[in-house]
């Protein structure tokens, strides 16, 4: 269906001063070329100047059969036709199967262009007349064919880019016309049903112009809708919108001319050739009353002037846009919910889009008109179907939320009240972190709007950072009314608690917070994160409720942020900023506020994302090392002790027995740092931490005391450096060597008992004498293990050659007995 609107896309017209009757015309590059009716003479005129002055006039070698301007666009003012049994359409690569062979015709330029030219099949369509429906063969006659490129990328000097954004294939029959998009896939964009038979048609970026026998007609096109989507990936999202490609086309104007014969177009000019029978009534009477049997030949100068060549100037797009907007208001006054009003506003919007897609046409006046067009479409969708489109159009309009509310306040006097589209826009805008902060008056009005239209949204609305100036008393009253209808719900109760806190009523705040268990409150914060924090990215700000929870229920606050992270409501870096802003300088601990470290530990227990786990392990290890190295404490107690983490988090391992010997539970350091040390040791004893990633951090921690020694030996052991670890323990804490060996020198490391540990102990015991009972005891325990593992000959090979073999005889005897038994 084609809608008809009596708009005025055509402005003034002027007659081209041709010397002889035109036969063929074409235009391009700002010039009009006219072939005389005899076909042997061509005149060129300048279209851009008043009066279309003559450029040149020249004769041709023979009769001109056809004339086209160079470029991708051209019309062919095709004579052959065929009858096929049925309609057929082949798109893209499938068009190769049409059975029609196409070959390039060379004109002597093949040496320069042969390598740059190729044939690509894009579309094949045939038409068959339906005689039973009154369709004749003439109705399938193809009279206009055009390949129309649309450029939106222009160079700095104003010249268009090499590649068009879109390419359209247009062809027309006497009664119908078709537009296909052929770049990036072939698909039909629009089909036109002409009110009367067309003789010729031409497609432009803005319009489709056709001529019938006695009228110039102007139709809307969808080129801008296609180009906009090809150029901007954000079209058809909540950010941006554009009228659909499938929207029905409309006839904007029918301008009468007598005897139209040919049509061509260039920029903002339409060129028309008319030729009519202008024989006067007197001439007819004279011919009737002639008595003689022969006719007198008249000189052409005596005959009437039966043809004209017109240049019709099209109206500037902005002027036509304004007329279409005024026209749409008539529909709106008659029926506010009329689809015709929306249709005409959409056509006007596409007209501006097509103009703005050319960078050279971008000017402030057009941009303002475009934004106003978006606002008008937003107004339409705020109360019509497809209400979700109100959001992107209002966003594109540049209007503030306050201005949109004001516009819809005027519209709400209608029986329908506030439309669904407006509520959709307002709801999403309130969730948007970039929305402006509303004044108290406007914020209270928003509460009233949702209280009447969508009360279920009130907890989310009240939590919006844009609503911080809303009256807490008014918000509490609305929530009380909602609760009386729906019953208690956790997000609703938390919202009431936040409002009570803003009012300074701590008793009412505690009353609401005590209504639900902490785990249910965590779920409530997942539903409405803005109760705890506002902003995103680098602009995260804790709410007053979050600040109060830090003082009163820090465990709940940490659990809530962990849940928000795990439900993709808060990123890790955003949570860092949240706690740093929340704690400020309250915590002077190394590595950041203690509450932030508590959050990392809690998140490590809950997260299953490998990248997050590795990041948290590195952060926690850095904090623990910093604190153990600096050894200063401010007395802030962590939420989780080392034992808590070992028992509840798989990434923290049970501390090895030999480590506990180095640093027992009552080790001589500050208690807080004893916890940090044990947490660090537990991570190193756990299965997940990549030890090599923290080696640079250990450089700040000396191994002169047992705390540092335990960490360095743990890392070395994890990396497989058992030899150096054995030497370090024998040097600094020999009482830990046997527990170390029993734990670490197993399976494929078993041979180190006699290859490394036994020689070291023998040498050190001999050097120390019988005074070092620790080394002597360790040597005896080592010999027991070696005697159990080796046969007598292997054991003898290990004995030192210093005359002390009698010391080893009991163990050699045990070795021999075990060997006899096996």
Automatic annotation (TrEMBL):
InterPro entries xrefs: HPS3, HPS3_C, HPS3_N
Upper lineage: Eukaryota, Metazoa, Chordata, Craniata, Vertebrata
Residue ranges that the Swiss-Prot or TrEMBL entry lists as coiled coil: none
Residue span(s) of domain BLOC-2 complex member HPS3 N-terminal: 3-70, 75-293
Pfam families: HPS3_C, HPS3_N
Source species, domain of life: Eukaryota
GO cellular component: cytoplasm
Protein name: HPS3 biogenesis of lysosomal organelles complex 2 subunit 1
Gene field: HPS3
Domain named BLOC-2 complex member HPS3 C-terminal: residues: 319-818
């Amino acid at each position: 269906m084609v809608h008809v609107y009596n708009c005025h896309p055509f402005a003034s017209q002027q007659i081209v001063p041709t010397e002889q009757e035109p036969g063929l015309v074409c235009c391009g590059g700002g010039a009009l070329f006219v072939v005389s009716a005899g076909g042997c003479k061509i005149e060129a005129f300048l279209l851009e100047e008043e009066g279309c002055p003559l450029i040149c006039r020249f004769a041709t070698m023979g009769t001109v059969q056809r004339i086209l301007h160079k470029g991708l666009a051209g019309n062919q003012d095709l004579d052959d036709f065929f009858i096929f049994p049925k309609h057929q359409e082949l798109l893209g690569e499938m068009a190769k199967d049409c059975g029609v062979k196409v070959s390039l015709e060379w004109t002597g330029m093949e040496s320069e262009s042969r390598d740059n030219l190729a044939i690509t099949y894009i579309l094949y369509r045939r038409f068959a007349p339906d005689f039973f429906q009154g369709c004749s063969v003439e109705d399938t006659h193809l009279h206009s064919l055009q390949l129309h490129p649309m450029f939106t990328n222009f160079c700095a000097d104003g010249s268009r880019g090499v590649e068009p954004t879109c390419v359209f294939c247009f062809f027309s029959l006497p009664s119908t016309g078709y537009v296909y998009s052929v770049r990036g896939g072939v698909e039909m964009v629009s089909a036109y049903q002409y009110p009367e038979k067309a003789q010729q048609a031409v497609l432009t970026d803005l319009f489709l112009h056709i001529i019938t026998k006695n009228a110039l007609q102007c139709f809307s096109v969808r080129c801008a809708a296609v180009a906009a989507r090809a150029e901007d990936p954000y079209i058809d999202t909540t950010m941006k919108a554009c009228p659909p490609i499938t929207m029905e086309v409309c006839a904007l104007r029918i301008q009468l001319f007598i005897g139209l014969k040919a049509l061509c177009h260039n920029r903002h000019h339409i060129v028309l050739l008319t030729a009519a029978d202008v024989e006067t009534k007197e001439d007819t009477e004279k011919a009737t009353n002639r008595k003689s049997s022969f006719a007198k030949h008249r000189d052409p100068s005596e005959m009437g002037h039966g043809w004209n060549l017109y240049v019709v100037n099209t109206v500037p797009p902005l002027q036509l846009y304004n007329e279409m907007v005024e026209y749409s208001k008539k529909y709106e006054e008659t029926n506010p919910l009329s689809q015709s009003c929306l249709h005409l506003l959409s056509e006007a919007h596409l007209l501006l889009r097509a103009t703005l897609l050319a960078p050279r046409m971008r000017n402030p006046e057009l941009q303002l008109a475009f934004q106003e067009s978006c606002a008008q479409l937003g107004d339409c969708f705020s109360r019509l179907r497809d209400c979700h489109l109100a959001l992107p159009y209002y966003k594109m309009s540049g209007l503030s939320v306050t201005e949109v509310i004001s516009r819809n306040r005027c519209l709400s006097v209608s029986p329908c009240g506030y439309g669904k589209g407006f509520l959709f826009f307002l709801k999403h805008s309130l969730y948007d972190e970039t929305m402006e902060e509303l004044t108290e008056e406007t914020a209270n009005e928003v509460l009233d709007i949702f209280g009447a239209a969508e009360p279920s949204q009130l907890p989310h609305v009240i939590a919006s950072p844009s609503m911080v100036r809303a009256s807490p008393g008014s918000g509490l009253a609305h929530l009380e009314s909602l609760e009386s209808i729906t019953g208690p719900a956790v997000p609703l109760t938390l919202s009431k608690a936040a409002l009570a806190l803003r009012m300074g009523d701590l008793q009412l705040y505690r009353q609401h917070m005590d209504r639900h268990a902490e785990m249910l409150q965590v779920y409530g914060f997942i539903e409405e994160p803005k109760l705890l924090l506002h902003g995103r990215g680098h602009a995260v700000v804790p709410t007053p409720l979050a600040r109060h929870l830090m003082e009163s229920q820090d465990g709940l606050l940490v659990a809530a942020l962990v849940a928000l992270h795990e439900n993709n409501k808060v990123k890790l870096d955003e949570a860092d900023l949240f706690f740093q802003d929340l704690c400020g300088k309250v915590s002077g601990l190394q590595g950041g506020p203690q509450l932030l470290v508590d959050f990392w530990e809690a998140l490590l227990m809950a997260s299953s994302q490998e990248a997050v786990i590795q990041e948290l392990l590195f952060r926690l290890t850095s904090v623990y090392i910093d604190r153990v190295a600096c050894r200063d404490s401010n007395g802030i107690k962590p939420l989780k002790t080392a034992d808590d983490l070992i028992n509840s988090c798989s990434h923290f391992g049970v501390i090895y027995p030999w480590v506990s010997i180095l640093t027992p539970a009552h080790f001589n350091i500050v208690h807080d740092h004893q916890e940090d040390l044990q947490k660090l040791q537990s991570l190193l004893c756990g299965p997940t931490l990549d030890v090599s990633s923290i080696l640079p951090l250990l450089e700040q921690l000396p191994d002169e005391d047992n705390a540092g020694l335990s960490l360095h030996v743990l890392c070395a052991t994890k990396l497989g450096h058992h030899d150096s670890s054995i030497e370090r323990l024998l040097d600094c804490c020999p009482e830990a060597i046997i527990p170390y060996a029993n734990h670490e020198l197993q399976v494929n490391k078993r041979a180190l008992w006699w290859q490394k540990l036994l020689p070291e102990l023998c040498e050190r015991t001999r050097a120390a004498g019988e005074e070092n009972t620790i080394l002597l005891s360790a040597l005896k325990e080592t010999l027991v293990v070696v005697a159990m593992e080796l046969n007598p000959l292997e054991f003898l090979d290990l004995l030192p050659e210093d005359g002390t073999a009698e010391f080893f005889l009991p163990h050699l005897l045990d070795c021999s007995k075990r060997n006899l038994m096996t």
